[in-house]
Design brief:
Rossmann fold, three-stranded mixed sheet, single chain, alpha/beta, 2 domains, N-(1-d-carboxylethyl)-l-norvaline Dehydrogenase, domain 2, six-stranded parallel sheet, 9 strands, 14 helices
């Protein structure tokens, strides 16, 4: 196992990355951060007292581990292998932990390319959103062999609870499939609420019953009351990020020859919501699209049939 004084380079200190990197600082790791946003870098140093690189490649050869949480695998590829990429500068034995919700096949490719320089790469995407990133209680899906994951387990456990999903790429696959299930549960729950309130049921009562019955899911527990019935729609996770995971999940199904009509319909509905509402709107606002198609709002009994 690595000592807590290990030098960690954390790339991407946005809404999720900032609190995740802060957990590493609290755990005693020697953390240096980088982000393309000057403001994010400055804010992190001010809030947490760590160091920040002004350039992506500054002092890269000195780091023992690199942690990344970036928008997608294309950005990861640019960071590692682009013109200003760090891949060729990492020292042998360095471990790259990609916590991006990425594409499984690309993660496997990155692993193979970096292995040529004796650098380890594995995927470890997360679930739990910002509140659990702050508390250090994320669900982390680690895809990598024992020899890749176990030596840096203290880095992972400083940020959350680790589930070993299998070889490289399996963490990304599991993250995409998890969000597929989450998105399906969200849409069907919203439609049930719309039917119920059109009938005359009270939305709060419906939610109470769902959460004590077999209709309970993550959305009924942690989204409907907090963001939909409150009309806040401000969970902090935009539609385009959820759609990325849905695309990864359905693409994986196609590659494997699995027929998935409901998954494809779910993906298409979320894509329609992104077009209708805008990709940067909070993902919980997908309820607006369902309400528009139904011709009424949840808990609006004025159109009771």
């Amino acid at each position: 196992m690595i000592p807590s004084a290990t030098r960690v380079y954390f790339i991407g200190v946005g809404a999720m990355g900032n609190p995740m990197a802060a957990c590493l600082v609290k755990a005693g790791f020697d953390v240096t951060v980088f982000d393309t946003s000057d403001q994010r870098r400055s804010d992190f140093v001010t809030e947490h007292g760590a160091q920040a690189n002004e350039s992506l490649t500054d002092g890269v050869a000195a780091f023992d581990a690199v942690v990344m949480i970036l928008p997608n695998s294309a950005v990861v590829q640019e960071v590692l292998f682009g013109k200003q990429g760090i891949g060729q500068q990492l020292k042998p034995g360095c471990v790259v932990i990609d916590m991006t919700s990425g594409v499984p096949a690309l993660s496997m490719q990155f692993n193979q390319l970096l292995a040529k320089n004796q650098v380890v790469f594995f995927d470890a995407p997360v679930s739990g959103a910002v509140p659990r990133a702050v508390s250090g209680d994320l669900t982390i899906m680690a895809g990598g062999d024992d020899g890749e994951v176990l030596p840096v387990m203290p880095i992972l456990t400083a940020m959350g609870q680790v589930t070993r999903t299998g070889p490289v790429g399996s963490g990304d696959a599991m993250k995409a499939l998890n969000n597929l299930v989450s998105c399906g549960g969200y849409l069907i729950g919203i439609e049930a609420m719309l039917i119920g309130t059109r009938f005359g049921l009270d939305a709060e009562k419906m939610l109470e019953v769902l959460n004590s019955s077999t209709g309970m899911n993550n959305s009924t527990q942690k989204k409907f009351g907090q963001y939909v019935l409150s009309r806040k729609f401000d969970s902090g996770f935009p539609i385009h990020m959820m759609l990325k995971d849905l695309n990864n999940a359905t693409d994986l199904g196609h590659q494997l020859g699995v027929t998935t009509p409901f998954a494809q319909l779910c993906r298409d509905l979320w894509a329609s919501a992104s077009t209708m509402l805008g990709p940067n709107v909070d993902h919980t606002a997908v309820a607006w699209m369902s309400e528009a198609m139904a011709g009424s709002r949840i808990n609006d009994n004025s159109n009771k049939s």
